């Protein structure tokens, strides 16, 4: 740019945001190779996806890990895995984001130990641990401990990083998953800020941080947001976030430095908004969603990671991730976006949109605080019920046609897509041998340790957990002794206990105005009469570690509205637990929801369990992200129906469930 910029332009072009792709699968070595390739293509930061066993504190050889190892991220069971994951990548020079929550302390301890082994100064290491446990109770489902204990771990990590890793963001408050769970922009902002207040209050009250350092704490709190396709509204939402965050930091925590009050956020655009039908349309969706968090200079994301066009089909390939990275690079380096001041300054339209979101979100925040804070709002079920109800309304608008999704409920005529012509070849495939190798490797790791050192480290961790001591020193001792992820989490489970979050179904209803529901309700009642039972009974099960429960909850709500009695016990169930519930509740149908890719392992386990229990006659249906070819394998195993994201009409699905029950019982 010329030394004297033309009127209206910046004197110097802005630096681009940190560009990431969310990556990790199969094994630490395979993920390391993927990281290196992405960095060579111009990616400027790392965003590590961990597999579900790692996220929920289990080793690869645990019963619940079956079918889940290496599927939606990289398995990291011990220090050796972390060394392999970052082999040859200088952590002192890298900005690393880690999507890890309940075991965030453990993963940061592993990361910091590897960085120190590389010779890095911890004070120079930059990056983020997601570490927002509240949204796990509401959306993603990878919580382990009760809310109070989880917040204690978060506060300990904040206090540790403040002193030892001052460039690290110890918590990344996530509104991203709230939007996926149904939140409106107002709810997304209000509920996320309520979480941030809970974290900051816990840090302020833990006694580990001097009152004069709260400004430094606030300055390291970052946010992780979702950007939907309504990109003008999304831009307003981000500006509203900044207004309210500045207000909270100044008025609640007394932060006087405006730089410390700046709203800092990274973004991934809306993965669950991507469609299986006409997936090529996802390309333009991703671009528009990226604009929502980059157009406004005053509210621009610090880091952006984009999903791939085929995430509704399965795990993206390296080429698909490259395509998404190139979208960012074209915007940042080819367009003139970074040459101008804020494009919305002085806009009456944007000001009105921002004011509306600020007013509504402030009211939501005040309501949660009046309830006693976000933990009380989680434990009472208020937040989950509000999200389930909002998502049900969103589904109603989609099904009625009030909201258009191109290729799904409108403009559905299409030509065959060359992008998906390869079938299952259009997504990354995880070799089943990966899990067996991980199981063998973790057992070999355990066999090669000093057992006395491991026992002593775990005993210290349990003892410290029973006090108010910061748990990071004990965790670091566990890392150095060779403790595994499952052992670390298991020790804390013994002290803190585990937790099952409210399902939010009690207040959910979502079929108002659906004219076809009355006919389905009559079919449900007629079938129950013909079977001589009071009501048809549906068990909705979430086998394995997949915690994305939105789809299962919406099916449960609609089935209940249609007259089914619904048994839903929440997430993370073993095949044995699902079978036992099906037998004890004497259900007419079992519906399994799996979005993690583990369906070929966990579904047959349930079918085998039902046969062993003498209920092989009980029909089973499956819903989730099921790649091409896999539905045939599931049906061959005995599944009656397979539903995927293209089956968006919930009342139609419930009608099909009635048909399944009738056929299984010999009714016409």
TrEMBL record:
The keyword Metal-binding applies. Gene3D superfamilies: Cobalamin-binding domain, Methylmalonyl-CoA mutase. Its cofactor is adenosylcob(III)alamin. Keywords: Cobalamin, Cobalt, Isomerase, Metal-binding. InterPro entries: Acid_CoA_mut_C (IPR006159), Cbl-dep_enz_cat (IPR016176), Cobalamin-bd (IPR006158), Cobalamin-bd_sf (IPR036724), MeMalonylCoA_mutase_a/b_cat (IPR006099), MMCoA_mutase_a_cat (IPR006098). It comes from the Bacteria. Residues 535-664 form the B12-binding domain. The keyword Isomerase applies. Belongs to the methylmalonyl-CoA mutase family. Heterodimer of an alpha and a beta chain. This is Protein meaA.
């Amino acid at each position: 740019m010329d030394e004297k910029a033309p009127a209206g332009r910046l004197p110097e072009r802005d630096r681009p945001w940190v560009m990431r792709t969310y990556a990790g699968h199969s094994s630490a070595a395979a993920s390391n190779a993927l990281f290196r390739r992405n960095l060579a293509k111009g990616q400027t930061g790392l965003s590590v996806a961990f597999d579900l066993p790692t996220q929920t504190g289990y080793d690869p050889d645990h019963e619940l890990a079956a079918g889940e190892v290496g599927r939606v991220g990289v398995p990291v069971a011990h220090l050796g895995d972390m060394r392999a994951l970052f082999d040859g990548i200088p952590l002192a020079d890298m900005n690393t984001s880690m999507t890890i929550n309940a075991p965030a302390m453990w993963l940061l301890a592993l990361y910091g130990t590897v960085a120190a082994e590389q010779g890095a100064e911890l004070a120079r290491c930059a990056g983020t641990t997601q570490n927002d446990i509240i949204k796990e109770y509401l959306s993603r489902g990878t919580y382990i401990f009760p809310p109070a204990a989880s917040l204690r771990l978060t506060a300990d990590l904040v206090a540790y990083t403040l002193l030892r890793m001052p460039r690290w963001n110890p918590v990344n408050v996530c509104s991203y998953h709230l939007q996926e769970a149904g939140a409106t922009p107002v709810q997304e902002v209000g509920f996320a800020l309520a979480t941030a207040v809970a974290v900051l209050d816990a840090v302020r009250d833990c006694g580990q941080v001097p009152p004069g350092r709260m400004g430094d704490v606030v300055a390291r709190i970052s946010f992780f947001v979702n950007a939907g396709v309504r990109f003008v509204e999304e831009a307003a939402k981000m500006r509203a976030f900044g207004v309210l965050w500045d207000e909270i930091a100044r008025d609640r925590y007394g932060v006087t430095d405006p730089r410390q009050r700046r709203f800092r956020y990274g973004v991934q655009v809306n993965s669950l908004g991507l469609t299986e039908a006409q997936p090529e349309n996802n390309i333009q969706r991703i671009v528009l969603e990226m604009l929502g968090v980059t157009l406004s200079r005053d509210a621009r994301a610090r880091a952006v990671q984009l999903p791939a066009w085929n995430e509704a089909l399965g795990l993206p390939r390296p080429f698909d991730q490259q395509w998404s990275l190139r979208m960012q690079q074209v915007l940042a380096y080819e367009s003139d976006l970074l040459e101008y001041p804020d494009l919305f300054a002085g806009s009456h339209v944007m000001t009105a949109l921002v004011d509306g979101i600020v007013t509504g979100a402030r009211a939501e925040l005040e309501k949660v605080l009046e309830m006693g804070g976000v933990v009380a709002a989680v434990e009472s079920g208020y937040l989950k019920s509000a999200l389930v109800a909002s998502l049900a309304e969103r589904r109603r608008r989609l099904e009625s046609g009030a909201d258009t999704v191109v290729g799904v409920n409108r403009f559905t005529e299409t030509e065959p897509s060359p992008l998906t012509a390869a079938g299952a070849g259009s997504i990354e495939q995880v070799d089943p041998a990966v899990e067996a190798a991980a199981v063998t490797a973790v057992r070999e790791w355990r066999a090669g340790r000093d057992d006395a050192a491991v026992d002593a480290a775990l005993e210290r961790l349990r003892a410290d957990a029973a006090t108010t001591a910061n748990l990071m020193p004990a965790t670091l001792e566990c890392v150095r002794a060779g403790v595994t992820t499952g052992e670390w989490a298991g020790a804390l489970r013994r002290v803190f206990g585990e937790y099952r979050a409210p399902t939010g179904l009690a207040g959910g209803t979502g079929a108002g105005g659906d004219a076809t529901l009355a006919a389905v309700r009559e079919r449900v009642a007629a079938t129950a009469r013909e079977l001589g039972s009071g009501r048809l009974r549906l068990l909705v099960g979430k086998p394995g570690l997949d915690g994305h429960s939105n789809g299962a909850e919406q099916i449960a709500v609609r089935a209940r509205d249609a007259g089914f009695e619904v048994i839903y016990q929440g997430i993370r169930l073993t095949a044995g637990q699902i079978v036992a519930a099906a037998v004890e509740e004497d259900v007419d149908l079992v519906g399994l929801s799996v979005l993690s890719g583990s369906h070929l392992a966990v579904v047959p386990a349930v079918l085998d369990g039902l046969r062993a229990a003498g209920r092989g006659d009980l029909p089973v249906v499956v819903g989730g992200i099921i790649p091409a070819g896999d539905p045939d394998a599931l049906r061959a195993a005995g599944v009656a129906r397979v539903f995927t994201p293209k089956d968006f009409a919930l009342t139609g699905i419930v009608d099909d469930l009635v048909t399944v029950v009738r056929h299984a019982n010999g009714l016409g």
